[in-house]
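Aim 2 progress update. The chain analyzed this quarter is reproduced below.
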Amino acid sequence: MSVLTSPRGKVEVVHCRRTESQDIYCIKSLIRKFTCKLFGKLNIIYLLEKANLAVTLCNDKEEIMAQATFLDYPNWNVAKQDNWVSVFRELDNDIPCTPLNTLFMHLFVAVDEYSVGCCKEILRTVYKAVPELHFIFLIVPSYMSLGSTLITVFDQVGNIPCLTYEEDFAVHICHRHSHYPQLHVRKARVEDHDDLMPIFMRYDTILKETYGEYFLAELIEAQDEENHAVVCEVAGTAVGFMSVCSRVNMQLLHECFDLGPFHGLCFPHPDDVLEAPQELSVRRSQDAELRSSSQGSQKIVEESQEPVFPDTMENIQGNIAKEAASEEALTAVQSGSVSEPEDIEKLSDVSTGYAQDDRVSSRSLASLLLPEEPVHFRPIYRGASAAFCIQLFCIDEKYEARSLDFMNFVFSLFSDKNFCIISLPHLTPEFILIQNFVKMVPFSTCTLEQDLYVFHRAGLLKNICLGRSSQ
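Predicted structure tokens:
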């Protein structure tokens, strides 16, 4: 929520949200002749469908105050959609624009009385929502002025010709640092304690109660080659803190989480065991075959078995018991010994039990043949650890969207590590920094009451070059 004040002194409480299709009617009502001269005649429906980001500014009554639409290629056909970088680099080599850090404003409309405030609020929200964004370009006919609103946030860079019209267009730029700048990150100092403690106490008082009032100062003083504490600051004031450590219990992580996609968070080693031994593979296949065959036999037995009435069952049981007893007595006479009545009764009991539930016996036989637990192979990683962990993290909610600014600095402190990990209790709400991490899948035997998140160094790449593959 933000508060806008008009030149007449009127106040409006506004908030930004993504543009919806139901906003189209109100957007059209805000378009003026001057808007068409700046951006051209637009199909609003088509523009919103193609937009990378469309933002609507509303007041507390959900009335639309302003709207802006951004795409990842320039308007007015001044360059090809897939090859505009070289054209804009020629205007100013000091602007490192790329498809990953640049957007183009294709439309902006606003209520006249609040237009300046609405424009600044939308740009601040866009830069806050897209941390990788650094430049927003605005292209208009060279003979047009930007008006009293857009000229307050855009600066002209130069002119470029159009591919279809015989006229030039003016290129204007808006920089991130004017609206929602990157945070300056540095090593923590003991003097930062007083700035950081109010932020910690706002979220949690357990640390202070457990480790004492000056736990943060002690943590900062205890820095060494394996432990580092860093802060982010705005205008010389610390607004965020992160404590990182290179000591990680890799054995525990290997036992509790499936780290195969990241090679166990270790460096490759010649003695790594990444595939199951041949004996284990054969055993797995035999278990699978046995399981499938037993299931098939159970199905055959169940299908072939017919229902038996109670009276018939009793007669069958009695006949089986009599036959078994007579056979046992005959055998005993022939061998020169006579079985006691107890033995005969036991034999009849066993026979009766078998006749009562043939299905149960077949199932129990199958269950005896199968192993109780399936055999799961887990890779063995013998290389050195390639990860460091975040022990403590906190940042002022005003600057939370810039949490990722920490990562470049902490990876520079551990130049030999490729992964950053953090573990959180299961019910911890997802915050902005963790949205850039990958949640690992725990094993069924995991005993930790925490989730593990992993961030790879490659997540910091800001430019990607594609080319033809060669032999």
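The chain has a mean pLDDT of 83. The radius of gyration is 36 Å. These observations will guide the mutagenesis experiments scheduled for the next reporting period.
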